[in-house]
Write a structure and sequence with these properties.
Largest sheet: none
Strand content: under 5%
Low-confidence stretches: none
Shape: elongated
Radius of gyration: 16 Å
Number of domains: 1
Number of helices: 4
Distance between the termini: 25 Å
Number of strands: 0
Length: 120
């Protein structure tokens, strides 16, 4: 199962990288607005990587924040794109929320398994 979660996490990271660095005409758009689109994308990235790399969650979260910063800086060289501090804050913050959600899901599942073992 872990290989599928890791594959999905990296596939999601590739999609977000493409959407971040591609020309604006190739980027998917929704009615959510730019900040909400960023928040949704990076919460999912954080959640996916948090579930994929449970044993190294802190290190992966720190690496994710650094790489999100690099991704934002790479927009200086992407035609039609622009790097903004606000985007970095939203992206890094919501990725960290995704990692926290992954940790909370692990905690809930651990508690559920422990209580099931005691009653079963």
């Amino acid at each position: 199962m872990s290989i599928f979660v890791r594959f999905f996490a990296w596939l999601l990271a590739a999609a977000v990288t493409f959407a971040t660095l591609s020309p604006p005409s190739l980027r998917p758009h929704s009615d959510l607005g730019q900040d909400s689109e960023h928040a949704l994308a990076f919460i999912l990235v954080g959640l996916a990587f948090g579930l994929a790399y449970r044993n190294r969650r802190w290190a992966v979260a720190a690496a994710a924040v650094v790489l999100i910063g690099v991704l934002e800086l790479m927009q200086f060289w992407a035609p039609g794109r622009h790097a903004r501090l606000e985007d970095f804050v939203v992206d890094a913050g919501t990725a960290c929320i995704g990692f926290a959600l992954a940790a909370a899901a692990d905690w809930v599942m651990t508690r559920f398994r422990a209580s099931s073992a005691l009653t079963g």
